[in-house]
Amino acid sequence: MKPSEIKRLVHSARRSLEISGAQPDAFLLAFVAWEALQVRILTVGLFAKGLDVKGAQAEILARQVWKKENREALFLELYGYRPANAPKVGKLFRKAQTFDSLRGRFIHGQSRTSPDRFANATADLISILESDWSQDLKFLLKKQGLRLASADPLKRPMRLTSKGK
Known about the structure:
Helix 2 (23-48) crosses helix 3 (53-62) and helix 2 packs across helix 4. The protein has helices at 3-16, 23-48, 53-62, 68-79, 90-97, 100-107, 115-129, 133-143. Helix content is 63%, strand content 0%.
C-alpha cells in the first residue's frame, strides 16, 4: 500500500471517531493502516538491502508477509530483531499487538466490546502510526551495516548520495 493510502486511512479513522456509533469502523480503519505500515517498514528494509520499491513489493508478496510468522521472520532478517524485541520500535509493536485479539474477536463476530474500548484502541493505533519511525528504523538499519537518507515508511525511501556518506 502506498504511503498516501495509509495516511488516508489514518485520516478516515480519525474522522470516524467523531461519528456516533462509528468507533468500531474507526478501529478497523486504523488496524488496516497498521497492517499496511508494517509492510512499508519491510519495504524500507528491503530497499536498504538494495532492492527498488517494486522489487521489495514483489519480495514481500513472495514471502507471504500477511502471515505474522513470515512478517516477523523477514523483519528479523532485515533489522536483526523480532519486531517486539527491537530497540526503540519494539514498544510500538508490543502496544499494537495488544489490539490483535480485539480485532480478531470483532472481525470474527466472537464478542462485542464498548465503543470506548474501540475509541481508545483507535487513538493508540493512530499514535503508533504517527510515531517518528524514520530515525528508529535508520538506527536499526545502521546496526545491520545499512544506511539510508530516508527510512520513513510513510514517505519514499531514499538512498544516501555520495555526499551523504
